[in-house]
Amino acid sequence: MRKTGMMQKAAKAVKFEEALKRLEEIVGKMERGDLPLDDALLAFEEGIGLAKFCESKLAEAEGKVEKLLKEMAD
Amino acid sequence: MDRKIFTVSEVARDLKSLIEANFSVIWVSGELANCKHHSSGHFYFSIKDAEAVLSGVMWRSQVSYLKFRPEDGMKVLVAGRLSFYPPHGKTQLYADHLEPDGIGALAMAFEQLKKKLEAEGLFAEERKRKLPLLPRKVGIITSETGAVIHDLMQTIRRRYPTMDIVFAPAKVQGDGAAQDIIEKIAWMNQRDDVDVLIVGRGGGSLEDLWAFNEEALARAICASRIPIISAVGHESDFTIADFVADLRASTPTGAAELAVPVYNDLLYTIDQARQGLIYAWKQSLRQWRERLRYSLSHVRDPRLLHWRKRFEEARLHLGYLWKGQAARATERYSVAFQKLKLLSPLAILDRGYAIVLKKGKTLPIKDPEQVVPGEALDVRLAEGRLTVVVK
Questions:
Q1: Which pTM does this prediction carry?
Q2: Which is higher by pLDDT, B320 or B131?
Q3: Which residues of chain A lie closer than 8 angstroms to B133, CB-CB?
Q4: A&B contacts, CB < 8 Å
Q5: Cβ-count burial of B160 within 10 angstroms (0-12 exposed, 13-18 middle, 19+ buried)?
Q6: Does A67 touch chain B (CB under 8 A)?
Q7: Mean pLDDT throughout B254-265?
Q8: Within A33-60, where are the H helices?
Q9: Average pLDDT for residues A40-68, to the nearest whole number?
Q10: CA–CA distance, B60 with B40 (Å, rounded to integer)
């Protein structure tokens, strides 16, 4: 059970990079201007959502320094 | 005449005494041959030069001190004692110490391990892991004292002030250093919040850096689930750890730069993307409104006027609230927009129909009686216009 938890959390770390890439992809598509308006609206919404997600990831760090002096029993 | 006649044993015994007395401590230089690393742990060899050869043996207890593996052809210096073994009639060199002649024992060991691990594919680029763009936490394994931890912390704070750090102080030289670092790597891997590890130490001699050339540490670095950046010694120091690590930094500052992005840059990138999104969206809107305005000016459908009003209201609302409530505002907007599209003549055009107009006029022709043969007409299609002549 612990291992799947670890893998899920590790997947979260990758999500930031993917989200940022996807956001830039969407901006590129919209700037090219060849999306039908319906799709442009959807892309706009997705893009805004991704921007908020990325910013929230940046804000998660707390500036803590943890010193490991003996084995962490999990 | 009196002849002294010796027995073989007497000769042998005397020879043995003579040799042991004169060669109780001796250094011999030569080339190794007939190397046999016996399963007992004892090492049997010959040492020779152009004209002569000596037989030798090094017992297991002495062999264990060797940092490198003696092989045929190596030029070596042997320290030990000579003796004579009567049952075999052989002079034997009992080696207490063995070292490469011309290159240090450590340097030799380094070369051997490097070849071995490279042959196993452990240095290959393909097996190296990619570092995450934004780690949740950065792990550091280095000495508690010294410039390395200080430089690392300082650079990380400068680039990303709120980055969380997990620091496991370790012994970085001397006995047990490699084992200590291996243990710390294991601790880090047991956690689920550290996404990158920096392992390193400051500059020093080959002996000082030796822990980072140990085979066990190299294998622990390869086996780590968390990607590892090595930062050992100075620019010109290369250790085995550097070859197997996922990335190598020549300074602690460099390691921090590899591990941690610049917070402000990321924020800027996201904001730039958001601005681009808004601008592009407004552009699309502008285009669509133009098309809408054109078609609306040719039709008097009260439903259209109603929905146009709703559309404009939603657009204004969207403009004010997009940042926080984009989802809801765009929902309302989307509904009005869908209705307009359905009612708009342009929706009809998209289905393949055309609007036929008299040249220079704006009211659509619905009756064939309105035209005469030979007359030129404008035909508006979804994607453009045509000029046609009536037959």
A1: 0.69
A2: B131
A3: 16-17, 20
A4: 129
A5: buried
A6: yes
A7: 96
A8: 37-58
A9: 92
A10: 7
